[in-house]
Structure formats: structure tokens, C-alpha cells
User: What shape does this take?
Amino acid sequence: MATSKKASKKTIASVEETISLKKIKPISAAASRSLTGDRGLKRIMTDAEVLAVYGTPGNTANFTQIITPFPFIIAWDKKIIVQKFTCHKKIANPLSNVLADLLATYGKQKINQLGINLFGGLYNLRKMRGSNTRWSRHSWAIAIDLDPDRNLLREDHTTARFARPEYKPMIDIFYKHGFVGYGPEKDYDWMHFEIGI
Ligand SMILES: [Zn+2]
Assistant: This one.
């Protein structure tokens, strides 16, 4: 069973502060891909590639807003509805296509029922979890987190909600439009999807 405990934003933040990624034993991308079937479309970028393609982290001049085709709610404050995302200009089209495909594939009711509408953040200028030096991909607004409470950083496919079969179409949609998921690639941080290369 996935953890159903409602994690507050504070809880998530404290997890981020205390987590040591060294304690996580990632399985190889090839091995973890076999968990959900090899899509083999894109891979995770190196930091050099992110800098070359997406510029300086936190440079809001590179950002734009997209209107979401269905409403999201903030995972840690479910009273707040989100209908616009701030993202890097270069991912505006692929991300819009992901959202349109999610709506076409699942429909609004199923999206809500599965918690795909639980927004866990996109732009956030911060260091990578477990690192004092490397910028998080969220710093470039090229990554999005969904349903963070049920796809915690340290959860693997045995408990993460997004590893369940009903989410395979969602993961395939992200890959179809050039994104990669840390769940399928690394078997942790299943909430996280970022543009690949
Ligand atoms: Zn993330």
C-alpha cells in the first residue's frame, strides 16, 4: 500500500533537507525501465546539457505561462486551484501536449480520481535534493511534480502510486512528448517528470 498519510509542505521540505541520496540505492535505468516497459525515447540530461539548452537556472526571462486544459489543485493546500503553469518557454509546447493528452486519455473525472490533478510544483529555484551544489531541474522550470504525497522521494515502485498500472498511460504520455520520469528511470521520486534529451 502507498503511504496515505497527508504530508504537509513542511514535511516535504524537511524530507528534502534531511534526505541523503547516498542512502538510496538506485537500480540501473535499464533495469528500472523493464519495470514498466522500455520506451527508450529520451534520457535524463546532464547538468551541462541543461545549461547549454535551457540557460541559467532561475532566469525568469526564459519563462512563460501556459493555461492548463483542466484544473489542478495544490497538493499541500487543496483549497487552491491552479489553471496556469509557469514553465520554460522551450517546454511550453510539449507540456501543453502532455496535459491535452492526459485529458483526452483519462477524462477530467478519472484525472481527479487518480490524483493526477494534484500539483506538486514546477518552477522552484533550489538546489537538488541531497546536494549543496547541483541545481534542481525545477530551477529551470523544466520539471513538474504531481501527487507528491503519494509518490514520496524515497518511495520505490513497491509503494509509489505512479508505479501502479493505471498510471502507465500517464507515464507513456510524458515520454511520448519528450519527458522522462525519475520513477521509471531511477525508481525513486516518482512524482517527478522533466524534459529529456
Ligand atoms: Zn521534482
